[in-house]
């Protein structure tokens, strides 16, 4: 969902979120900032949120149409931190946890090489597949050109340095299994690790590491 919010768009950083007042609910609902578009006319700048209908708040939000007004506050939170010396960034997403990592990938500088590992139960639950670069060969390397298994689309604009690796539990797209099944293959390559997903994903990430992450930033998808 795109929201016209020029003041938020102007200062939003990857990893931050907004809160939305949903009708009939006492507490505001937090949503990660998914994308930002800075328009030529500042007042038309927008932010996007990505959500799955799982309760009253998201159901109410999903029923809005273009032109409707929504009460939002933000940006909130410190956001992700990228060290100046880091070159290889590993992004690990589970389910709707893809939301803030898309913003991070789009905001990365040309000096960064990014691998985005994204897991879901089935292909249907993955972020719209055609909108992301795809690598079917999940192995990290440096200076590798685009392979036969890669696709491109204009639905989202990503730096060429972003490698997208889908993982589904039923094998309906990409590698079969969990994101943590291939995570160890990339830990030695990554200068920093960024993760967003369900609590069980974080527990599995901790269990699969043989030594502490050099630098790991996480955001909860289950607020």
From TrEMBL:
This is FAD-binding FR-type domain-containing protein. InterPro entries: Cyt_c3_hydrogenase_gsu (IPR012165), FAD-bd_FR_type (IPR017927), FNR_nucleotide-bd (IPR039261), PyrK_electron_transfer (IPR050353), Riboflavin_synthase-like_b-brl (IPR017938). PANTHER family: DIHYDROOROTATE DEHYDROGENASE B (NAD(+)), ELECTRON TRANSFER SUBUNIT, DIHYDROOROTATE DEHYDROGENASE B (NAD(+)), ELECTRON TRANSFER SUBUNIT-RELATED. The lineage of its organism: unclassified sequences, metagenomes, ecological metagenomes. It comes from marine sediment metagenome. One of its GO terms (biological process) is pyrimidine nucleotide biosynthetic process. Residues 1-82 form the FAD-binding FR-type domain. One of its GO terms (molecular function) is oxidoreductase activity.
């Amino acid at each position: 969902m795109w929201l016209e919010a020029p003041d938020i768009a102007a200062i939003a950083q990857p990893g931050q979120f907004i809160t939305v007042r949903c009708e009939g609910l006492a507490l505001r609902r937090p949503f990660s900032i998914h994308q930002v578009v800075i328009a030529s006319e500042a007042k038309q700048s927008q932010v996007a949120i990505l959500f799955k209908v799982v309760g009253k708040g998201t159901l109410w939000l999903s029923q809005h149409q273009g032109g409707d007004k929504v009460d939002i506050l933000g940006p909130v939170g410190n956001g992700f931190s990228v060290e100046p010396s880091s070159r290889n960034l590993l992004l690990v997403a589970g389910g709707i946890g893809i939301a803030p990592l898309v913003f991070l990938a789009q905001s990365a500088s040309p000096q960064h090489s990014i691998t985005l590992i994204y897991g879901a139960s089935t292909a249907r639950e993955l972020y719209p597949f055609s909108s992301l670069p795809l690598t079917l060969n999940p192995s990290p390397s440096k200076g590798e050109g685009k392979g036969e298994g890669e696709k491109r689309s204009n639905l989202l604009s990503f730096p060429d340095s972003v490698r997208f690796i889908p993982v589904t539990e039923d094998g309906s797209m990409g590698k079969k299994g969990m994101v943590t099944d291939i995570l160890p293959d990339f830990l030695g390559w990554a200068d920093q690790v960024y993760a967003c997903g369900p609590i069980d994903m974080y527990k599995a990430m901790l269990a699969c590491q043989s030594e502490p992450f050099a630098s790991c930033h996480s955001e909860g998808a289950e607020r």
